[in-house]
Please model this.
Amino acid sequence: MIHCVCRSINTRLVDEAAAHGARSPACVMKYCGKRFNCGQCIPSIAERLECVVGTSTGTSPASLSRRDEIAGDIPLAAE
Ligand code: FES
Model:
């Protein structure tokens, strides 16, 4: 399944990032060497991380906002 259409990040990549310690969508992007574009994938990646890691990533996917996620350490490509 594709989670991020803009950056072609699929379930395998999210799982691989999680296995290497990624615990947030921003960490998954960083692991993949990519940057968010539109940010629409954040809830989907967060949901997959919760499935893989087995614990909450700190925020429910539904409550994640693009700004909340991006405010961390990874700037948007368009900014
Ligand atoms: S779908 Fe992931 S940045 Fe657009």
